[in-house]
## 1
Amino acid sequence: MKLEIIDQQHQASTKGSIVFIHGACMGAWIWKDNFLPYFFEKGYNTFAISLRNHGASENNGKLRWTSIKEYVEDLTQVIDSIDGPIYLVGHSMGGFTIQHYMQKPSSKVKAVALLCSVPNTGLWKLVVRLLVDFPLQFLIANMSLSWLPIVKDKKRLKKLMFSKDYPVENMDSILKNLQDESFLAFLEMVFLRLPRKFQLKTPLMVVGAEKDYLVSETDTRKMGKHYNVEPIIIPNASHCFMLEEGWVFTAEKINQFFDLH
């Protein structure tokens, strides 16, 4: 599978490489302006990937029925192509993909950070929330097997993924880059393909956002308990905090965690 990879590499890095995996309806672009240059300056080689049928990656025309299993194959492909120690950072659906990957990880993977990750218990609570707050759009989305009716609206998108004070002028470029997501993958994140219980041997960091509409703080804390780690909850942060003011705070926490491993 030909995948889009936005990378920054040192001629000789002693720290290893970080692979960034985006969330639903997004692509490698979400890491480009903030996290990639930050961690590159910290000495890591950085790789942001667009999963199949996302961004500029190969499009096989089957986005609607693409499985999380196939996203795991994409992640595996990238990890296998990189030499040396590897660290993983996954946002939302990307974090869910990593949870599946970590059931049989490469020994090269030294530590993992899950950011506002879809929890191991699934998104069934989100379904209820969407049905209450956006009943018409939710109905249209299910009938059309597409999530664009929900996310391709500036006001709704801000409520779903961004804080109230996120600059309105930035929303146009976000909307331009947003795309549809696999409907099958969504169903798998709700209940069809939840991560199996496994013994986690790789150091794991769980980060949540206090004001996250899509993944509640409660679910993030439960996920942390499931993996026996104390989650970090970013105060007043939203789902896409890596694009918002204050993102450096989280990046520093991740950098400190990776430096330990």
## 2
Amino acid sequence: MDNLSKLKSVLIGTIKAAGLAIIKDYNDLDMKSVKLKSARDLVTGADLKSEKIILDKIKASFPDHQILSEESGRSGKKSDYLWIIDPLDGTTNFFMHNPLWSVSIGLAYKGKMIMGAVYAPMQKELYHAVLGQGAYLNNKKITVNNDPIKSLNAFCHGREIKNIQRMVKYFAYQKEHSLDCRQIGSAAIETAYVAAGRLSSILIPGAWPWDVAAGTILIREAGGKVTDFNGREWNHAERDYLGASQKSHKKILKIIKSLGI
């Protein structure tokens, strides 16, 4: 394995550079730069600017590593290392001038997440985790919330109609039976909030790996659990995603089963 210190240094430096570079785009958003990738999916000039910064830095630092990015797909030679990138997570929030958007970068080694960071520039919050070293928010250690009384849940979903329908069933149940259930609009921020104990869980039918790769190691290193909807350990080929504190995870798996989602 490559030097962890160098990997971490590139990760943190790159994600901060990308996030800071697109703050001006957020403040001065030109609506003409916003395009539709599909009927329910936006892309802005900021997505592409952030991605270029990240790709250029990783390719220069680790030319033998492979990269998977939301906007440009997979690139590079076959490698044990895979950088998984969302250059702007929460594009719709960004578009509507909601400050809850982020940049997310995760690193897998031989299929296992070993490092990740989520940067929310408008909140000045940088989350990061390295395998076996804990999870941190602005360099202060964070842990999940295992208090069942103060259980706040979040949801997100893939763009496919079937995943929206599954999510509606789950949302309705949680709104009736729990303290609250909300969609923040950035899966990367939602996973980071679970790691920080602000949320108890995040459930996503139809997640893409770039949405949650970094958040996965954040949650695990903060003491939580990340699986698919059958309780199997999540990997970046899996579309259904549940990240939660240990106590909430067990409870939500039962809800998933009872609802048939």
## 3
Amino acid sequence: MYKIRQIKYSFHSVLHPVYKIENRKRVIVRHIGSAWNEQERLDLLSLASDFIEKSTKQLYLFDNKQSNNILYLNQTEFIGVYYTFLYEFISKLIIAVGFDKIKNRLLLDLVILRMVEPSSKLRSISLLDEYFGIKHRRQSYYQSAPQWLSLKAKTEAIALAFAHKYYSFNFDLLFYDVTTLYFESFEEDKLRKNGFSKDNKFQQPQILVALMVSKEGFPIAYEVFAGNTFEGHTIVPVVKDFISKNKVKELTVVADAAMISTENTRALKENGINYIVGARLGNLPNELITAIDSNLPREDGKSIRLQTDNGYLICSYSTVRYRKDKYEMERQIERAKYIITHPSQNKKLKFTKSNKENIELNQKLIDKTQKILGIKGYYTNLEESMVDNKTIIEHYHELYKIEQAFRISKSDLQTRPIFHYKEEPIKLHLLICFMALVVSKHIELQTRHSIRKFIHECKKITDARLKNQITDKEIRIRANLTPTAIEFLKNLNC
């Protein structure tokens, strides 16, 4: 049996060794320390009792919890830090969004790591232990991951319900756009195909991802297509499927000019889907451009509405856009003139045309372009009595928010490039990224800071891991909250 002895070393100090009796002699097992006052004496007695309990499993009549709060620097080892505050904060947000209903801790932890430090799935499992002290077996990932693909519909339903409750999404406006994600590979398959790349990776296979967001830019649904799919062929089936799943009665989809075609506008009208899409005025026939040039006043805020095969064409003028368009046109004309005077550098540019073996300036195209300087066009099927031109234009200009969502996804969450090579892991990767995007966008909307800023600030609140060498117990001490972290907690109601 171990015992504690108090030895008065001097008038002011008392030693506290732990000893045992062997062969009728006291054998010191551990020196706990020296006390210089009554409080230190009580603390050392508490630590000594804890050491005896840990070493011999001796039971005491009363529990001793006080030793957990007693540290002596010369008996303490710093073993690292955890970012537990960050983990707890994001976990609360996941619960607030409703993703906890999925009831899969490993999947949710991978979502958190995608926000904190994007990496491969197996490295993420390692980082969960390193950053938060949370352990998962790799085998658990291999066993359960294939089952997660069936959760896509549920995660979208949760995101949609949260958007409806928190951001008042009521299906009146749906913003739609697509992007491409390339692979670190040069081999194609059924899903990964070479196609028009928005990342200028034309030699590498890719996939096409369609994203739907609310007017605030909050993501509510996504879809995946083969990399060689023409983006204009995606909007009708995706929006139709969205309407069918959610039993939407009336909806207006907002998309960029790449989505417009006579076939698409006809299909949208047939399915009762209202639309607001960008118009490429440069592709319009001369008669229509002449009508725009003749009828649209060159004043800021002025607009006209013309009937076309693709619906109403709304055109508005801006002096800022005029200066930008004029500068771009003049620069392109100068480049065209340079190519004409230097035939050795034979390139086909916008304002050049071939005349037998010679290249000359395309004056007709220049004249046509001058007529639409400063003018932006929009197609819609909405009657002016229902929605006026100004509102149509304002809705379209909110389309930039979906670009922000893609920016978060590609840059902060590092959705691209993709290193997976089979269809199931690719779709699982996108599921995790979508869930991380939902939480990240909510953070950005409420804090008015980027997700990177949020992560950086929350990482400042560390839990120092200290090992009490007397008791061999780990003690954690959390840093004080910064003013920014307190503001985040307030803005996110956590």
## 4
Amino acid sequence: MSGEIIGVLGKQPSWGIVLALCLLLMPAIGYAQEPTAPPPPGEVQRVIVVDPLATASGLIDQGNLVQADIILTAYDQASADNRSEDEDRELIFLRARILAGRGQHGDAEDIFRTILAHRPDLVRVRLELALVLFLQKKDGPAEREFQFVAAGDLPDMVRARIRRFLAEIVARKIWRFRVGFSLAPDSNINTATSSEVVDIFGLSFTLDEEARAKSGVGFVLSGGLDFTPVLSRRSRFTLSLDGQRTEYGSKDFDDTIISVSLGPKFLIGERNHIVGFGFTAFRRWFGTSGFNYGFGGELTGSIRLSARVKLDTKLAVQRLRFDSFTARNGTLFSFNTVLQYALSQNSALQGRFGIIREQANLKSQRNTAFRLALTYLRELPYGLTFSGGPEFTYRPFGDAPTVFGDRRIDYRYAFQVSLSKRDIEVMGFSPQIQYLFAQNKSSITLFEYSRHRVRFGLFRDF
């Protein structure tokens, strides 16, 4: 190896390590000495590497991967018995950077993820992970990691680069898939009341067993894809498909829903904010027959307020049709907005607000639902990721009288938590456990219910 290699770092390694390193490098670089003149052609210059980790890092920054690899190999052998945990982690990290520099992005990604599984607070590792994800065009995960990194105290130059990466992700994103499957024990698979008696026209009636809450274990398969081909430099066309199938032992409570949306989207500004509109439709089956369907249009917007803050909104209008209860046919108006904010390099907060107006033909079925939800996400040591938070929905119905005599007003309280193991993958899928508790209070007893649901499954977003 020719040329001079000198490393300087604030923390000095032990002299034993330096001496052992020099002995290991001796066949290649010889003894250190003060050169009095440039070495003759072909002769190797002799130097001492004072701090191998800092030196290797600098060489990787310069693109000198071969020299960095030689130093790390020698350091690994010389210090194997007395390295600290931090030095071990730094050595592994630098080797992953060399892999990334050689184009072995998948291997580098695995190492970066392993490090973050134990130390999710390491910003530099997270940035390198975001970069290799970006280079592999894994845009969904890359966007998430960049947003986490941006929550830190970064130099303006780094922050500007992250904004450019995020804008590029939006500009080039063509395919995205979501897949998950799980077992779901559920205390109330038909979201029915547990009450045995209800009042109708002032008289008490006993509910049939089939009309009350039932428990069961379901198998849930969910998935979706987004296809966004490029129309021009500032415009795209988006096709989104989503579906979910929940199957129980009894076919009467199976639940299937599919939805589709398609239309153009336009990129605006340096940060590639998105504005779009298009056609939407859905179809739902409950039990062994159709339940309802709808079709209409939507207006969407996605605004990157900063590298760590993103706002998504959707305004939609659909015509609703029910297979059996046709009195509920009508028009559905909905507005939803989601604000995502990266709190730190390993935590984020998401707020949701929505208004849904169901303008049914039957006046007593007309209702407006106001929904508010908050979700906190945090990456923990040992490869665990926690997310959870509350949700509240207020849903008043029309003033028209019903067979129950009272105007229906519902209050739904829910809380959901999930825990995933991000450092374990089965064919790219990560294990996750979710728990949901929901309780619906109503002015009409028949519509009151409570529900506990647990989902054990594997999920992947790519």
